[in-house]
Design a protein that fits this description.
Blueprint (H helix, E strand, L loop, with lengths): L2 H24 L12 H24 L7 H29 L12 H9 L11 H9 L2 H8 L2 H17 L10 H17 L4 H8 L3 H18 L5 H21 L12 H7 L1 H14 L4 H26 L16 E4 L2 E4 L11
Antiparallel strand pairs: 1-2
Keywords: Acyltransferase, Membrane, Transferase, Transmembrane, Transmembrane helix
Subcellular location: Membrane
GO molecular function, one term: acyltransferase activity
Length: 355
């Protein structure tokens, strides 16, 4: 692997770590107690999910998605995205139904709701999981992206079509398989694919040292101005926020920092498993013991990051047959060093590392 390729992979690994921290933080504020989520959380949410879609599109091209056979690619995505979606949703279904009086989104213990929770991802027992079938449906459009990247005119036309699809939102309200989310987020996956397709000029632009503080100031001012005007336009916030995150990744690698070293290789497992400790902590701390709200938020954030990593390590060591349910390949591998960061041999080819 070339030096440039290793650097790009290190950048992306950092972005996954930053993104998952923001996702877990955003899930650490029980809204049934605090009616209004702090504005800073809304600010982060304006670009967190688009960022993960951009990362997924980037890795699709980076890992030459589909080049070894479309059938094998789709089967791999089924194992990575849909199998954990189904297994973990089923594990959580009965406990959540039995503890419905503690839940922010109570569910019915019925066959009809069970089927609905799987076919309608935004109604899933674990609300975070809407992303997985959405990304699966977007990913299987990969051959279209591979073709468009080879022809400049096709790339321009596809960008315009997907931008129009995003802005007009024609599938709004189509919740079956979250087709509304597919039409909304496919633009960002495509933009990530474009970014990874060898646009050296874009890379040089992102690496400019002055870009990060400029984008941060611009993002904050734009968000505050839109919020004051009660007009939040998602697309510019998402694009600027994503560019800001990529610029941060470049800066982080240049500085040879190791803030997120302990998260490397486990960001997808955090996404899959963080709901369980966070809900448990919320029920015990806030509902049962009635501890201060700020303490509960901090405890939910810490447990949502640390316990999934511990659980993934224990599963890989003692229950490897369950690896597929938590996004690990059978009997996952050791961590390997790439540049200034560590990547998981187990997940090095995975195209998703999120909430």
């Amino acid at each position: 692997m070339s030096t440039i390729a290793r650097k790009r992979q290190a950048d992306i690994d950092i972005l996954r770590c930053v993104g998952i921290c923001l996702v877990v933080l955003g899930h650490s504020f029980p809204t049934d107690v605090l009616k209004e989520t702090p504005w800073l959380i809304h600010f982060f949410r304006s670009f967190t999910m688009p960022l993960f879609m951009v990362i997924s599109g980037y890795l699709y091209i980076y890992a030459e998605g589909g080049k070894k056979g479309y059938y094998r690619f789709v089967i791999g995505k089924v194992k990575l995205l849909l199998v954990p979606y189904i297994l973990l949703s089923n594990i959580a279904f009965i406990p959540k139904a039995l503890l419905a009086h503690y839940a922010e989104r109570p569910i019915d213990l019925s066959w009809s709701y069970w089927v609905k929770s799987l076919l309608y991802p935004t109604e899933n027992v674990i609300i975070y999981f809407w992303f997985m079938p959405t990304l699966f449906l977007i990913s299987i459009c990969g051959p279209l992206f591979n073709w468009a990247i080879r022809y400049r005119l096709a790339a321009v036309v596809l960008t315009l079509v997907l931008a129009l699809l995003h802005l007009t939102d024609p599938l709004q309200g189509v919740l079956l398989l979250n087709l509304a989310g597919v039409s909304h987020y496919i633009l960002f996956f495509w933009l990530g694919s474009l970014l990874a397709s060898g646009k050296a000029r874009t890379e040089r632009f992102i690496e400019a040292p002055i870009l990060l503080p400029f984008l941060l100031i611009l993002q904050v001012l734009l968000y505050l101005a839109m919020e004051k005007a009660h007009l939040i336009i998602e697309l510019p916030l998402a694009l600027i926020g994503t560019a800001m995150a990529f610029s941060f990744g470049k800066w982080y690698v240049r500085q040879r920092l190791n803030w997120f070293r302990w998260l490397h290789g486990y960001t997808y497992q955090i996404y899959l498993l963080s709901w369980f400790p966070q809900v448990f902590v919320m029920i015990i701390s806030l509902k049962v013991l009635q501890l201060p709200y700020n303490f509960t938020v901090a405890a939910m954030f810490i447990s949502g990051l640390l316990l999934p990593v511990l659980a993934a390590r224990l599963i890989n060591l003692y229950c490897p047959f369950f690896n597929i349910a938590v996004g690990l390949k059978p009997r996952g591998g050791k961590l390997r060093t790439v540049g200034n960061t560590q990547l998981s041999e187990t997940n090095k080819s995975d195209n998703i590392q999120i909430s």
